Amino acid sequence: MKILVCVSNVPDTTTKVRFSDAKTFDSTGVQWIINPWDELSLTRAVEFRESIPAVVEKVTVINVGPALTEATLRKALAIGADDAIRVNADPKDAFAVAFQIAEAVRNDGYDLILCGIESSDYNGSAVGGMLAELLDMPNLSAVSGLNITAADVMVDRDIDGGKEVLKVQLPLLLVVQKGIAKDARIPSMRGIMTARTKPLVVKEAVAGDTYAEIVGFDLPQAKAKCKMIDAENLAELARVMHEEIKAF
Amino acid sequence: MKKLKHSDFQYHHSYSCTFKNSIMSVLIYSEHTEGKFKKSAFELVAYGAAIANSIGSKAIALVIGKVDPQELSKLGNYGATTVFNIADGSIDHLSNHLFAAYISQVAEKEGATVVVFSHSNTGKALAPRLAVRMKAGLVTAASGLPTTFEPFIVKKSSFTGKAFAKVQINTNCKVLTLAPNSYPFSETGGTASIESFSPSVAAKPAGTQLTDVQKQTGKILLTDADTVVSGGRGMKGPENWAPIEELADLLGAGTACSRPVADEGWRPHHEHVGQTGKVVAPNLYIALGISGAIQHLGGISSSKFIIAINKDPEAPIFEAADYGVIGDVQKILPDLITEVKKAKQ
User: Fold this and answer.
1) CATH class of B11-196
2) CATH class of B227-344
Protein backbone atom coordinates (compact mmCIF):
# COMPACT_ATOMS: atom_id res chain seq x y z
CA MET A 1 0.00 0.00 0.00
CA LYS A 2 1.26 3.44 -0.96
CA ILE A 3 -0.03 6.38 1.08
CA LEU A 4 0.06 10.00 -0.06
CA VAL A 5 -0.31 12.73 2.56
CA CYS A 6 -1.08 16.24 1.30
CA VAL A 7 0.60 18.86 3.47
CA SER A 8 -0.12 22.54 3.49
CA ASN A 9 2.46 25.06 4.67
CA VAL A 10 0.75 27.51 7.04
CA PRO A 11 1.71 30.27 9.48
CA ASP A 12 2.19 29.10 13.05
CA THR A 13 -1.18 29.11 14.83
CA THR A 14 -0.01 31.81 17.27
CA THR A 15 0.84 34.22 14.41
CA LYS A 16 -0.60 37.71 14.63
CA VAL A 17 -2.32 38.17 11.29
CA ARG A 18 -1.40 41.34 9.34
CA PHE A 19 -1.77 42.34 5.73
CA SER A 20 0.85 44.23 3.74
CA ASP A 21 -1.83 45.52 1.38
CA ALA A 22 -5.56 44.99 1.02
CA LYS A 23 -5.20 41.45 -0.30
CA THR A 24 -1.74 40.22 0.68
CA PHE A 25 -0.92 38.39 3.90
CA ASP A 26 2.16 39.93 5.51
CA SER A 27 4.51 36.99 6.03
CA THR A 28 7.33 39.05 7.55
CA GLY A 29 8.78 37.15 10.49
CA VAL A 30 6.20 34.38 10.21
CA GLN A 31 7.11 30.89 11.43
CA TRP A 32 5.81 28.29 8.99
CA ILE A 33 4.49 24.94 10.14
CA ILE A 34 2.77 21.87 8.75
CA ASN A 35 -0.99 22.46 8.82
CA PRO A 36 -2.13 20.81 12.10
CA TRP A 37 -4.59 18.32 10.55
CA ASP A 38 -2.06 17.33 7.87
CA GLU A 39 0.52 16.74 10.58
CA LEU A 40 -1.89 14.44 12.46
CA SER A 41 -2.63 12.55 9.22
CA LEU A 42 1.07 12.14 8.55
CA THR A 43 1.66 10.95 12.11
CA ARG A 44 -0.98 8.22 11.69
CA ALA A 45 0.38 7.16 8.30
CA VAL A 46 3.91 6.93 9.68
CA GLU A 47 2.69 4.85 12.63
CA PHE A 48 1.44 2.20 10.18
CA ARG A 49 4.54 2.55 7.98
CA GLU A 50 6.63 1.60 11.01
CA SER A 51 4.37 -1.01 12.63
CA ILE A 52 3.35 -2.89 9.46
CA PRO A 53 5.97 -2.06 6.81
CA ALA A 54 5.00 -5.09 4.74
CA VAL A 55 1.50 -3.65 4.31
CA VAL A 56 2.30 0.07 4.15
CA GLU A 57 5.27 0.14 1.80
CA LYS A 58 5.64 3.87 1.34
CA VAL A 59 4.44 7.21 2.68
CA THR A 60 4.87 10.19 0.39
CA VAL A 61 4.12 13.83 1.21
CA ILE A 62 3.16 16.47 -1.36
CA ASN A 63 2.84 20.24 -1.21
CA VAL A 64 1.96 22.82 -3.86
CA GLY A 65 3.96 25.95 -3.18
CA PRO A 66 7.08 28.01 -3.75
CA ALA A 67 10.57 26.96 -2.60
CA LEU A 68 10.11 28.34 0.93
CA THR A 69 7.72 25.46 1.69
CA GLU A 70 10.57 22.93 1.40
CA ALA A 71 11.40 23.42 5.09
CA THR A 72 7.93 22.09 5.90
CA LEU A 73 8.45 19.12 3.57
CA ARG A 74 11.81 18.37 5.24
CA LYS A 75 10.04 18.39 8.58
CA ALA A 76 7.50 15.91 7.18
CA LEU A 77 10.40 13.70 6.06
CA ALA A 78 11.89 14.00 9.55
CA ILE A 79 8.58 12.85 11.04
CA GLY A 80 8.92 9.74 8.92
CA ALA A 81 7.68 10.15 5.34
CA ASP A 82 9.80 8.26 2.79
CA ASP A 83 9.86 10.92 0.13
CA ALA A 84 8.40 14.29 -0.78
CA ILE A 85 7.06 16.09 -3.82
CA ARG A 86 6.83 19.85 -4.20
CA VAL A 87 4.81 21.18 -7.12
CA ASN A 88 6.37 24.51 -7.94
CA ALA A 89 3.42 26.90 -8.06
CA ASP A 90 1.88 29.73 -6.09
CA PRO A 91 -1.77 28.67 -6.17
CA LYS A 92 -4.54 31.25 -5.92
CA ASP A 93 -7.43 29.01 -4.87
CA ALA A 94 -8.22 25.54 -3.57
CA PHE A 95 -9.08 24.27 -7.04
CA ALA A 96 -5.63 25.22 -8.30
CA VAL A 97 -4.02 23.28 -5.42
CA ALA A 98 -6.18 20.20 -6.01
CA PHE A 99 -5.60 20.36 -9.77
CA GLN A 100 -1.80 20.50 -9.41
CA ILE A 101 -1.79 17.57 -6.97
CA ALA A 102 -4.08 15.55 -9.24
CA GLU A 103 -1.84 16.13 -12.25
CA ALA A 104 1.30 15.34 -10.26
CA VAL A 105 0.11 12.00 -8.83
CA ARG A 106 -2.55 10.78 -11.28
CA ASN A 107 -0.41 7.94 -12.61
CA ASP A 108 1.47 7.05 -9.45
CA GLY A 109 -1.05 4.53 -8.09
CA TYR A 110 -1.51 5.77 -4.53
CA ASP A 111 -3.91 3.50 -2.66
CA LEU A 112 -4.76 5.89 0.13
CA ILE A 113 -4.62 9.68 0.05
CA LEU A 114 -4.94 11.72 3.24
CA CYS A 115 -5.85 15.42 3.31
CA GLY A 116 -6.52 17.60 6.36
CA ILE A 117 -10.07 18.94 6.72
CA GLU A 118 -8.88 22.50 6.20
CA SER A 119 -5.79 24.65 6.29
CA SER A 120 -5.53 26.96 9.27
CA ASP A 121 -4.88 29.98 7.02
CA TYR A 122 -7.60 30.03 4.33
CA ASN A 123 -9.95 27.57 6.09
CA GLY A 124 -11.12 26.28 2.70
CA SER A 125 -12.14 22.67 3.55
CA ALA A 126 -11.96 22.07 -0.17
CA VAL A 127 -8.76 20.50 -1.47
CA GLY A 128 -9.48 16.91 -0.36
CA GLY A 129 -12.94 16.67 -1.92
CA MET A 130 -11.80 18.42 -5.08
CA LEU A 131 -8.78 16.14 -5.45
CA ALA A 132 -11.01 13.06 -5.04
CA GLU A 133 -13.34 14.30 -7.76
CA LEU A 134 -10.43 15.17 -10.09
CA LEU A 135 -8.97 11.68 -9.58
CA ASP A 136 -12.44 10.12 -9.87
CA MET A 137 -11.80 8.39 -6.56
CA PRO A 138 -14.30 7.81 -3.75
CA ASN A 139 -13.66 9.80 -0.59
CA LEU A 140 -14.81 10.07 2.99
CA SER A 141 -14.83 13.30 4.93
CA ALA A 142 -14.90 14.07 8.69
CA VAL A 143 -12.59 11.10 9.31
CA SER A 144 -11.47 10.84 12.93
CA GLY A 145 -9.98 7.36 13.01
CA LEU A 146 -8.00 5.05 10.71
CA ASN A 147 -6.98 1.44 11.24
CA ILE A 148 -4.97 -0.49 8.71
CA THR A 149 -4.22 -4.21 8.97
CA ALA A 150 -3.08 -6.75 6.43
CA ALA A 151 -6.72 -7.83 6.09
CA ASP A 152 -8.66 -4.57 5.88
CA VAL A 153 -8.91 -0.83 6.33
CA MET A 154 -11.39 0.60 8.84
CA VAL A 155 -12.34 4.25 9.08
CA ASP A 156 -14.23 6.22 11.74
CA ARG A 157 -16.29 9.08 10.40
CA ASP A 158 -17.84 11.75 12.62
CA ILE A 159 -21.56 12.30 12.16
CA ASP A 160 -23.94 14.53 14.13
CA GLY A 161 -23.70 13.36 17.73
CA GLY A 162 -21.53 10.34 17.13
CA LYS A 163 -19.53 8.38 14.61
CA GLU A 164 -19.84 5.71 11.96
CA VAL A 165 -17.39 2.86 11.55
CA LEU A 166 -16.85 1.94 7.91
CA LYS A 167 -14.99 -0.89 6.25
CA VAL A 168 -13.49 0.58 3.11
CA GLN A 169 -11.93 -0.50 -0.13
CA LEU A 170 -8.99 1.13 -1.81
CA PRO A 171 -8.16 3.35 -3.60
CA LEU A 172 -9.73 5.94 -1.37
CA LEU A 173 -9.17 9.51 -0.27
CA LEU A 174 -9.78 10.51 3.34
CA VAL A 175 -10.43 14.03 4.56
CA VAL A 176 -9.15 13.94 8.10
CA GLN A 177 -9.96 15.87 11.27
CA LYS A 178 -9.06 15.71 14.94
CA GLY A 179 -8.84 12.27 16.51
CA ILE A 180 -6.92 10.50 13.74
CA ALA A 181 -3.79 10.62 15.94
CA LYS A 182 -3.51 11.69 19.55
CA ASP A 183 -0.63 14.11 19.12
CA ALA A 184 1.45 15.11 16.15
CA ARG A 185 4.80 13.38 16.23
CA ILE A 186 7.85 15.48 17.05
CA PRO A 187 10.79 14.59 14.78
CA SER A 188 13.64 12.76 16.50
CA MET A 189 17.25 13.83 16.01
CA ARG A 190 17.78 10.71 13.89
CA GLY A 191 14.70 11.60 11.85
CA ILE A 192 16.04 15.09 11.24
CA MET A 193 19.43 13.69 10.12
CA THR A 194 17.95 11.13 7.72
CA ALA A 195 15.47 13.66 6.32
CA ARG A 196 18.37 15.54 4.73
CA THR A 197 19.11 12.67 2.38
CA LYS A 198 15.56 11.54 1.61
CA PRO A 199 14.32 12.36 -1.91
CA LEU A 200 12.48 15.66 -2.39
CA VAL A 201 11.33 15.93 -5.99
CA VAL A 202 10.31 19.26 -7.49
CA LYS A 203 7.72 19.05 -10.26
CA GLU A 204 6.88 21.99 -12.45
CA ALA A 205 3.26 23.15 -12.38
CA VAL A 206 1.01 22.45 -15.35
CA ALA A 207 -1.29 25.08 -16.85
CA GLY A 208 -4.64 25.12 -15.09
CA ASP A 209 -7.59 27.27 -14.21
CA THR A 210 -8.33 29.36 -11.16
CA TYR A 211 -12.02 29.56 -10.34
CA ALA A 212 -11.97 31.95 -7.41
CA GLU A 213 -9.60 34.52 -5.97
CA ILE A 214 -9.24 36.54 -2.80
CA VAL A 215 -9.84 40.19 -3.63
CA GLY A 216 -9.40 41.60 -0.14
CA PHE A 217 -9.06 40.99 3.58
CA ASP A 218 -10.70 42.72 6.52
CA LEU A 219 -9.62 42.46 10.11
CA PRO A 220 -12.45 41.78 12.56
CA GLN A 221 -13.86 44.86 14.21
CA ALA A 222 -12.37 45.48 17.63
CA LYS A 223 -14.67 44.20 20.34
CA ALA A 224 -16.22 46.61 22.80
CA LYS A 225 -14.48 46.43 26.16
CA CYS A 226 -15.53 43.54 28.37
CA LYS A 227 -18.07 44.69 30.98
CA MET A 228 -16.96 43.43 34.38
CA ILE A 229 -19.49 42.16 36.88
CA ASP A 230 -18.58 41.77 40.52
CA ALA A 231 -18.30 38.19 41.78
CA GLU A 232 -20.57 39.18 44.68
CA ASN A 233 -23.29 40.39 42.29
CA LEU A 234 -24.13 37.33 40.21
CA ALA A 235 -27.80 38.32 40.19
CA GLU A 236 -26.70 41.02 37.74
CA LEU A 237 -25.03 38.40 35.51
CA ALA A 238 -28.18 36.29 35.58
CA ARG A 239 -30.21 39.40 34.66
CA VAL A 240 -27.89 40.15 31.70
CA MET A 241 -28.16 36.53 30.53
CA HIS A 242 -31.92 36.69 30.75
CA GLU A 243 -32.74 40.20 29.52
CA GLU A 244 -29.89 41.25 27.24
CA ILE A 245 -28.52 37.97 25.88
CA LYS A 246 -31.90 36.21 26.05
CA ALA A 247 -30.19 32.93 26.91
CA PHE A 248 -33.26 31.78 28.85
CA MET B 1 -7.49 -6.87 0.33
CA LYS B 2 -9.67 -6.40 -2.75
CA LYS B 3 -8.96 -3.27 -4.68
CA LEU B 4 -11.35 -1.36 -6.86
CA LYS B 5 -10.17 -0.21 -10.24
CA HIS B 6 -10.72 3.35 -11.27
CA SER B 7 -12.95 2.09 -14.06
CA ASP B 8 -15.39 0.88 -11.37
CA PHE B 9 -16.49 4.46 -10.94
CA GLN B 10 -18.49 4.85 -14.09
CA TYR B 11 -20.73 7.77 -13.48
CA HIS B 12 -18.35 10.59 -13.93
CA HIS B 13 -19.74 13.30 -16.06
CA SER B 14 -19.05 16.94 -16.02
CA TYR B 15 -21.44 19.76 -16.42
CA SER B 16 -20.17 23.26 -16.73
CA CYS B 17 -23.09 25.59 -16.39
CA THR B 18 -23.77 26.30 -20.02
CA PHE B 19 -27.51 26.31 -20.20
CA LYS B 20 -29.72 25.11 -22.95
CA ASN B 21 -32.86 26.25 -21.20
CA SER B 22 -33.67 29.66 -19.86
CA ILE B 23 -34.91 28.63 -16.41
CA MET B 24 -32.42 29.46 -13.73
CA SER B 25 -32.39 28.48 -10.14
CA VAL B 26 -30.55 28.42 -6.85
CA LEU B 27 -30.28 24.85 -5.60
CA ILE B 28 -30.34 24.31 -1.83
CA TYR B 29 -29.05 20.99 -0.47
CA SER B 30 -31.21 20.39 2.60
CA GLU B 31 -29.80 18.01 5.19
CA HIS B 32 -32.01 16.02 7.49
CA THR B 33 -31.30 13.86 10.51
CA GLU B 34 -33.33 10.67 10.43
CA GLY B 35 -36.07 12.32 8.42
CA LYS B 36 -36.25 15.61 10.34
CA PHE B 37 -34.89 19.03 9.46
CA LYS B 38 -32.96 21.07 11.98
CA LYS B 39 -32.78 24.83 12.34
CA SER B 40 -29.68 24.94 10.13
CA ALA B 41 -31.67 23.43 7.23
CA PHE B 42 -34.27 26.20 7.47
CA GLU B 43 -31.54 28.82 7.78
CA LEU B 44 -29.97 27.52 4.57
CA VAL B 45 -33.26 27.52 2.64
CA ALA B 46 -33.86 31.15 3.67
CA TYR B 47 -30.29 32.01 2.61
CA GLY B 48 -30.66 30.30 -0.78
CA ALA B 49 -34.04 31.95 -1.32
CA ALA B 50 -32.52 35.38 -0.61
CA ILE B 51 -29.81 34.76 -3.23
CA ALA B 52 -32.45 33.54 -5.70
CA ASN B 53 -34.46 36.68 -5.07
CA SER B 54 -31.43 38.90 -5.72
CA ILE B 55 -30.55 37.26 -9.04
CA GLY B 56 -34.09 36.63 -10.28
CA SER B 57 -34.02 32.83 -9.95
CA LYS B 58 -36.17 30.14 -8.38
CA ALA B 59 -35.22 28.65 -5.00
CA ILE B 60 -35.22 24.86 -5.23
CA ALA B 61 -34.41 22.47 -2.41
CA LEU B 62 -33.04 18.94 -2.79
CA VAL B 63 -33.41 16.30 -0.09
CA ILE B 64 -31.72 12.89 -0.40
CA GLY B 65 -33.16 10.02 1.65
CA LYS B 66 -36.59 9.10 2.96
CA VAL B 67 -38.43 12.10 4.44
CA ASP B 68 -42.21 12.50 4.94
CA PRO B 69 -43.99 14.86 2.52
CA GLN B 70 -45.25 16.82 5.52
CA GLU B 71 -41.68 17.41 6.71
CA LEU B 72 -40.50 18.22 3.17
CA SER B 73 -43.22 20.84 2.80
CA LYS B 74 -41.82 22.76 5.79
CA LEU B 75 -39.04 24.02 3.51
CA GLY B 76 -41.67 26.04 1.62
CA ASN B 77 -42.21 28.10 4.74
CA TYR B 78 -38.63 29.43 4.44
CA GLY B 79 -38.67 30.30 0.75
CA ALA B 80 -38.26 27.13 -1.34
CA THR B 81 -40.77 26.93 -4.21
CA THR B 82 -40.01 23.32 -5.17
CA VAL B 83 -38.58 20.51 -3.07
CA PHE B 84 -37.06 17.56 -4.91
CA ASN B 85 -36.73 14.34 -2.98
CA ILE B 86 -34.55 11.38 -3.91
CA ALA B 87 -36.24 8.88 -1.59
CA ASP B 88 -33.77 6.03 -1.93
CA GLY B 89 -34.27 3.86 1.14
CA SER B 90 -31.13 1.84 0.44
CA ILE B 91 -28.83 4.72 1.37
CA ASP B 92 -27.55 4.02 4.88
CA HIS B 93 -24.58 6.38 4.90
CA LEU B 94 -23.27 9.39 3.05
CA SER B 95 -21.49 8.47 -0.16
CA ASN B 96 -19.78 11.61 -1.40
CA HIS B 97 -19.21 10.63 -5.02
CA LEU B 98 -22.72 9.25 -5.41
CA PHE B 99 -24.45 12.21 -3.74
CA ALA B 100 -22.38 14.71 -5.75
CA ALA B 101 -23.47 12.92 -8.91
CA TYR B 102 -27.12 13.11 -7.83
CA ILE B 103 -26.92 16.79 -6.95
CA SER B 104 -25.26 17.71 -10.23
CA GLN B 105 -28.08 16.00 -12.14
CA VAL B 106 -30.70 18.06 -10.36
CA ALA B 107 -28.58 21.19 -10.82
CA GLU B 108 -28.34 20.54 -14.54
CA LYS B 109 -32.03 19.77 -14.96
CA GLU B 110 -33.06 22.88 -13.05
CA GLY B 111 -30.48 25.25 -14.49
CA ALA B 112 -28.89 25.94 -11.14
CA THR B 113 -26.26 28.66 -11.27
CA VAL B 114 -25.74 28.68 -7.51
CA VAL B 115 -25.74 25.63 -5.21
CA VAL B 116 -25.68 26.15 -1.44
CA PHE B 117 -24.84 23.78 1.43
CA SER B 118 -24.57 24.15 5.19
CA HIS B 119 -20.95 24.26 6.38
CA SER B 120 -21.49 20.98 8.23
CA ASN B 121 -19.69 17.64 8.04
CA THR B 122 -21.98 16.77 5.11
CA GLY B 123 -21.74 20.12 3.34
CA LYS B 124 -17.96 20.12 3.66
CA ALA B 125 -17.91 16.61 2.20
CA LEU B 126 -20.13 17.32 -0.82
CA ALA B 127 -19.50 20.92 -1.88
CA PRO B 128 -15.89 20.49 -3.12
CA ARG B 129 -16.77 17.42 -5.22
CA LEU B 130 -19.77 19.15 -6.71
CA ALA B 131 -17.78 22.32 -7.44
CA VAL B 132 -15.27 20.35 -9.52
CA ARG B 133 -18.05 18.47 -11.26
CA MET B 134 -19.80 21.74 -12.19
CA LYS B 135 -16.54 23.59 -12.92
CA ALA B 136 -17.74 26.07 -10.34
CA GLY B 137 -15.83 28.34 -8.01
CA LEU B 138 -16.35 27.45 -4.36
CA VAL B 139 -16.49 29.55 -1.21
CA THR B 140 -16.83 27.61 2.05
CA ALA B 141 -18.07 28.95 5.39
CA ALA B 142 -19.60 32.07 3.84
CA SER B 143 -20.43 34.50 6.64
CA GLY B 144 -23.50 35.94 4.91
CA LEU B 145 -25.03 36.85 1.56
CA PRO B 146 -22.73 37.83 -1.31
CA THR B 147 -21.63 41.44 -0.84
CA THR B 148 -22.02 41.98 -4.61
CA PHE B 149 -23.41 39.75 -7.37
CA GLU B 150 -21.55 41.30 -10.34
CA PRO B 151 -18.80 40.43 -9.63
CA PHE B 152 -19.88 37.68 -7.27
CA ILE B 153 -18.05 38.34 -4.00
CA VAL B 154 -18.60 36.45 -0.75
CA LYS B 155 -17.07 37.19 2.64
CA LYS B 156 -15.76 34.38 4.81
CA SER B 157 -13.79 33.98 7.99
CA SER B 158 -10.11 33.15 7.42
CA PHE B 159 -6.99 32.58 9.51
CA THR B 160 -9.35 30.81 11.90
CA GLY B 161 -11.31 33.85 12.91
CA LYS B 162 -8.41 36.31 12.84
CA ALA B 163 -9.50 37.92 9.55
CA PHE B 164 -12.22 37.96 6.90
CA ALA B 165 -11.41 37.19 3.28
CA LYS B 166 -13.46 38.58 0.40
CA VAL B 167 -13.50 35.92 -2.28
CA GLN B 168 -14.54 36.59 -5.85
CA ILE B 169 -15.91 33.69 -7.89
CA ASN B 170 -15.14 34.03 -11.60
CA THR B 171 -17.09 31.06 -12.99
CA ASN B 172 -20.67 30.95 -14.31
CA CYS B 173 -21.66 28.51 -11.60
CA LYS B 174 -21.06 29.05 -7.91
CA VAL B 175 -21.03 26.68 -4.97
CA LEU B 176 -21.23 28.02 -1.41
CA THR B 177 -21.32 26.58 2.08
CA LEU B 178 -22.89 28.78 4.76
CA ALA B 179 -21.26 29.10 8.19
CA PRO B 180 -23.69 27.99 10.92
CA ASN B 181 -25.84 30.60 12.69
CA SER B 182 -24.71 33.32 10.30
CA TYR B 183 -27.92 34.19 8.46
CA PRO B 184 -30.90 35.66 10.36
CA PHE B 185 -34.14 34.24 8.99
CA SER B 186 -37.85 33.93 9.64
CA GLU B 187 -40.85 32.04 8.31
CA THR B 188 -42.30 33.32 5.03
CA GLY B 189 -45.68 31.57 5.08
CA GLY B 190 -44.89 30.22 1.59
CA THR B 191 -45.55 26.74 0.26
CA ALA B 192 -43.49 24.44 -1.91
CA SER B 193 -44.46 21.76 -4.40
CA ILE B 194 -42.94 18.36 -3.63
CA GLU B 195 -41.51 16.32 -6.49
CA SER B 196 -39.74 13.02 -6.39
CA PHE B 197 -36.59 12.73 -8.48
CA SER B 198 -35.04 9.55 -9.82
CA PRO B 199 -31.39 10.03 -10.67
CA SER B 200 -29.94 8.15 -13.60
CA VAL B 201 -26.86 6.84 -11.87
CA ALA B 202 -25.56 3.31 -12.08
CA ALA B 203 -25.55 1.22 -8.91
CA LYS B 204 -22.90 2.41 -6.50
CA PRO B 205 -19.71 0.39 -6.17
CA ALA B 206 -19.27 -1.26 -2.80
CA GLY B 207 -16.48 1.13 -1.88
CA THR B 208 -17.53 1.62 1.72
CA GLN B 209 -19.55 -0.60 3.98
CA LEU B 210 -21.13 0.62 7.19
CA THR B 211 -20.25 -1.72 10.06
CA ASP B 212 -21.27 0.26 13.14
CA VAL B 213 -22.91 3.50 14.26
CA GLN B 214 -22.14 4.92 17.69
CA LYS B 215 -24.37 7.78 18.80
CA GLN B 216 -24.85 9.51 22.08
CA THR B 217 -28.48 10.15 22.72
CA GLY B 218 -30.20 12.93 24.59
CA LYS B 219 -27.24 15.29 24.32
CA ILE B 220 -27.50 18.67 22.68
CA LEU B 221 -25.11 18.88 19.76
CA LEU B 222 -22.44 21.50 20.21
CA THR B 223 -22.76 22.78 16.69
CA ASP B 224 -26.56 23.14 17.05
CA ALA B 225 -26.63 24.64 20.52
CA ASP B 226 -27.81 28.23 21.05
CA THR B 227 -25.82 28.33 24.27
CA VAL B 228 -22.55 26.55 25.02
CA VAL B 229 -21.16 26.10 28.54
CA SER B 230 -17.46 25.34 28.37
CA GLY B 231 -14.87 24.47 30.98
CA GLY B 232 -11.09 24.84 30.99
CA ARG B 233 -8.15 23.86 33.13
CA GLY B 234 -9.44 26.22 35.83
CA MET B 235 -12.06 23.58 36.62
CA LYS B 236 -9.18 21.61 38.19
CA GLY B 237 -10.43 18.12 37.35
CA PRO B 238 -13.15 15.98 35.76
CA GLU B 239 -14.84 15.46 39.12
CA ASN B 240 -15.82 19.16 39.11
CA TRP B 241 -17.94 19.03 35.96
CA ALA B 242 -21.32 18.45 37.64
CA PRO B 243 -22.14 22.19 37.99
CA ILE B 244 -21.24 22.73 34.33
CA GLU B 245 -23.72 20.02 33.36
CA GLU B 246 -26.28 21.55 35.70
CA LEU B 247 -25.91 25.04 34.26
CA ALA B 248 -26.07 23.57 30.74
CA ASP B 249 -29.30 21.73 31.62
CA LEU B 250 -30.80 24.93 33.03
CA LEU B 251 -29.97 26.84 29.86
CA GLY B 252 -30.69 24.05 27.36
CA ALA B 253 -27.04 24.37 26.42
CA GLY B 254 -24.37 22.09 24.99
CA THR B 255 -21.23 21.36 27.02
CA ALA B 256 -17.74 21.96 25.69
CA CYS B 257 -14.15 22.22 26.87
CA SER B 258 -10.77 23.65 26.00
CA ARG B 259 -8.00 21.63 24.40
CA PRO B 260 -5.96 20.86 27.56
CA VAL B 261 -9.11 19.44 29.16
CA ALA B 262 -9.68 17.07 26.22
CA ASP B 263 -5.98 16.18 26.03
CA GLU B 264 -5.95 15.35 29.76
CA GLY B 265 -8.89 13.04 29.14
CA TRP B 266 -11.15 14.93 31.57
CA ARG B 267 -13.73 15.28 28.81
CA PRO B 268 -14.23 13.51 25.45
CA HIS B 269 -12.49 14.90 22.36
CA HIS B 270 -15.76 15.76 20.61
CA GLU B 271 -16.28 18.47 23.24
CA HIS B 272 -13.02 20.25 22.36
CA VAL B 273 -13.73 23.70 20.99
CA GLY B 274 -10.94 25.63 19.28
CA GLN B 275 -8.88 25.87 16.16
CA THR B 276 -8.22 22.16 15.80
CA GLY B 277 -11.44 21.04 17.49
CA LYS B 278 -14.95 22.26 16.81
CA VAL B 279 -15.72 25.80 15.72
CA VAL B 280 -18.94 27.01 17.33
CA ALA B 281 -21.12 30.05 16.71
CA PRO B 282 -23.79 30.06 19.43
CA ASN B 283 -25.80 33.00 20.72
CA LEU B 284 -23.96 32.68 24.06
CA TYR B 285 -20.64 31.04 24.90
CA ILE B 286 -19.80 30.77 28.60
CA ALA B 287 -16.08 30.21 29.25
CA LEU B 288 -15.41 28.86 32.74
CA GLY B 289 -11.80 28.73 33.88
CA ILE B 290 -10.57 29.08 30.31
CA SER B 291 -7.63 31.46 29.86
CA GLY B 292 -8.33 32.00 26.16
CA ALA B 293 -5.34 30.82 24.16
CA ILE B 294 -5.45 32.25 20.64
CA GLN B 295 -6.31 28.79 19.26
CA HIS B 296 -9.33 28.60 21.58
CA LEU B 297 -10.51 32.08 20.63
CA GLY B 298 -10.40 31.04 16.96
CA GLY B 299 -13.08 28.45 17.69
CA ILE B 300 -15.45 30.81 19.50
CA SER B 301 -14.98 34.19 17.81
CA SER B 302 -18.26 33.92 15.88
CA SER B 303 -20.29 33.62 19.09
CA LYS B 304 -22.75 36.50 19.49
CA PHE B 305 -22.06 36.93 23.22
CA ILE B 306 -19.22 35.58 25.34
CA ILE B 307 -19.24 35.47 29.15
CA ALA B 308 -15.94 34.65 30.87
CA ILE B 309 -15.31 33.67 34.48
CA ASN B 310 -11.64 33.43 35.40
CA LYS B 311 -9.49 34.17 38.42
CA ASP B 312 -6.75 35.88 36.37
CA PRO B 313 -7.78 39.45 35.44
CA GLU B 314 -5.05 39.45 32.75
CA ALA B 315 -6.40 36.29 31.01
CA PRO B 316 -6.79 36.92 27.25
CA ILE B 317 -10.34 35.51 27.38
CA PHE B 318 -11.45 38.87 28.81
CA GLU B 319 -10.37 40.58 25.57
CA ALA B 320 -12.78 38.38 23.63
CA ALA B 321 -15.58 38.42 26.20
CA ASP B 322 -18.56 40.78 26.40
CA TYR B 323 -19.12 40.18 30.11
CA GLY B 324 -16.58 39.02 32.66
CA VAL B 325 -16.38 37.97 36.28
CA ILE B 326 -13.02 37.79 38.04
CA GLY B 327 -12.84 35.11 40.69
CA ASP B 328 -12.63 31.42 41.50
CA VAL B 329 -14.92 29.62 39.10
CA GLN B 330 -15.49 26.77 41.59
CA LYS B 331 -16.97 29.23 44.07
CA ILE B 332 -18.83 31.39 41.54
CA LEU B 333 -20.51 28.66 39.52
CA PRO B 334 -22.87 27.33 42.25
CA ASP B 335 -23.94 30.92 43.05
CA LEU B 336 -24.55 31.65 39.38
CA ILE B 337 -26.70 28.51 39.12
CA THR B 338 -28.75 29.73 42.10
CA GLU B 339 -29.22 33.16 40.51
CA VAL B 340 -30.21 31.70 37.13
CA LYS B 341 -32.77 29.49 38.87
CA LYS B 342 -34.17 32.55 40.66
CA ALA B 343 -34.31 34.59 37.46
CA LYS B 344 -36.08 31.73 35.67
CA GLN B 345 -38.94 31.76 38.15
Assistant:
1) alpha beta
2) alpha beta
For B273, the closest chain A residue by CA position comes to A178
Which is nearest to A87 in space by CA: A207, A210, A205, A209?
A: A205
**Domains in chain A with CATH codes:** 2-219 (3.40.50.620)
ipTM computed for the complex:
0.93
Domain boundaries defined on chain B: 11-196, 227-344
Identify the DSSP state of B33: B
Interface of A with B in 57-116 (CB under 8 A): 93-95, 98, 111
Smallest Cβ–Cβ distance between B97 and the set A138, A224, A241 belongs to A138
Encode pLDDT of A79-114 as tens digits.
Answer: 999 999 999 999 989 999 999 999 999 999 999 999
Candidates B4, B158, B162; nearest CB to A169? B4
Q: For residue A109, report the phi and psi dihedrals to the nearest 5 degrees.
A: 65, 40
Substitution target in B10, B172, B208 with the highest count of A β-carbons within 10 Å is B208
- B278 closest CA partner among B219, B235, B230, B217: B230
Q: What is the pTM of this model?
A: 0.91
Per-residue pLDDT of B76-115, as tens digits, reads 999 999 999 999 877 778 889 899 999 999 999 999 999 9
pLDDT of residue A139: 94
Q: Can B11-196 and B227-344 be said to share one CATH topology?
A: yes
Are B159 and A167 within 8 A, CB to CB? Answer: no
